[in-house]
Amino acid sequence: MPNVWIAGAGMTRFGKRQESLPDLVAEAARSALSRAQLETPDSIVVASMNPEEFIGEGNFASRIATHMGFAHVPALRVETATSSGAAAIYSGFAGVAAGLYRSVLVVGGEKMTHLPTPRVSELIGRSIDPHERSYGATMPALAGLVTRALMAATGVTLKEISQVSVKNHAHGALNPYAHFREPLSPDAVLESRIVADPLRLYHCCPISDGAAAVVLSADPSPVRIAGIGQGTDTLAVRYRESLVSFRATRAAARAAYAMAGFGAERVEVAEVHDAFSPFELMALEDLGLVPPGKAARATLSGETALDGRLPVNPSGGLKARGHPLAATGIAQVVELFWQLIGQAHGRQVTATVGLSHSIGGLATNNWVILLERVG
Amino acid sequence: MTEAIPASRCLRCGRVVAPPVPFCPDHPAPMEPVSIDGYGDVVSFTTLHSPPEGFRSPLHLALVALDGGARLFCHGAGTRGIRVGSRVAVEAVDQVYYFSHLGLLDRARLFWHRAGDRGETVAAIVKSAAKRIWRRGDGGGT
Fold first, then answer.
1. Whether B96 contacts chain A with CB within 8 A
2. Which of A226, A326, A360, B7 would disulfide-bridge A84, Cβ 3.0–4.6 Å?
3. Residues of chain B found within 8 Å of residue A199, distances taken between Cβ atoms
4. Residue in A135, A149, A236 closest to B75 by CB
5. Contact indicator for A231, A249 with CB cutoff of 8 Å
6. Nearest-CA distance from B34 to chain A in Å?
7. Strand, coil or helix: what is B66?
8. pLDDT tens-digit profile of A307-358?
9. Does B10 touch chain A (CB under 8 A)?
10. CATH 2.40.50.840 assigned to B4-102
11. What confidence tens digit (pLDDT) does each residue in A82-103 have?
């Protein structure tokens, strides 16, 4: 398979934004195109989980293409719930790897903060199995079930889970693109209100606006996509045998490592999907980045902090950088790109291989992407 | 009373899911309708303090692994005394499943109920055990 390179990357600041979604998407896309020194891509892949409901706009690929002066460029939209951004990268990757296009602009974004929280929660919750939703299951509710099962099965404590939020806020404080730039104390996390027992508010990522983009190219540049893998699981959580490990993550990692021809041992920095803080601990083990049962200890001992053995979520993760749904899977790759080329100012780590992990729905459609700096 | 929960079983892999669906989630194979007992173990539970519109707060939710193989979402009146692994009974009220904690008495009743068809066997075992104790008492001291 021919190499697929990342020619450019860019993103907007995440948070509460006044601009329209098409404007945010265009801002991220122009930034990536300018870094790639490309005026017009051969093709465009747009990721947005639900612009129909969030902003009342449909036919969104054409909307974006026309908005950016690319009405003549082939454009399509990709959706896999909260991992739509990573799925869009996969689509763009496939287009370049197959030789269909020399360059693909992949851009994703979401705008949500203008809506009341219960409405946002309901819209995101539509990615849950309808029967389970009829019992009042929301994303935080399912995450609460997962968290309690995890604590019972592994002995992981709320204090250890809270350390994920504390670490990611410390990282976010150094990232000018992050939604939250204030540090968070362990006590503040534990004392925040209960959302879905045992999960507290500060174990959950915020509702954010924002967009992120990468330009994929057949022409060599310093960073290539070494592997990309998808993993899936049942929509219904009640169909799963285990709540404390995500099959979709394990399958995505297996596929990405197989394509790359190397394993977790070469990963030096990771961006993982901490929509809920315990998910970061589960991801570290499902991805093989720490031995089974060691994620909590690795986090408490600082192994996953910016100056640790394996920095995890140097951007601040979903918890602090924010989570504008379809922007997230792309923003993770943008962060890794900056880390690998030495342009993650103020939060730079030393790495030549990075891994991103994106969860769609309650881990029904997950992605793992491996980036490698060559030369 | 034991609630009979309608479910379906995959003809290929034997997986049981509830409520019934036409196809196995992991095989494009049809499923046959089955009915399973409303008893099981709590896989996990949570309480929502700001549940979605249309639900009473606080909303107690549990995922229960029924003895018959399927896992089921249930509402509950509370989670006091409930732990991961707790034995619960599941009953349908107005087509919504509710879990309730099984105390010692409930468990004893369940045991005898389960004995059901095997009632005679169980009675025989108890009788023979009583006889043994009686004999032992009879020959006391030897």
1. yes
2. A326
3. 46
4. A135
5. yes
6. 16
7. strand
8. 999 999 999 999 999 999 999 999 999 999 999 999 999 999 999 999 999 9
9. no
10. yes
11. 999 999 999 999 999 999 999 9
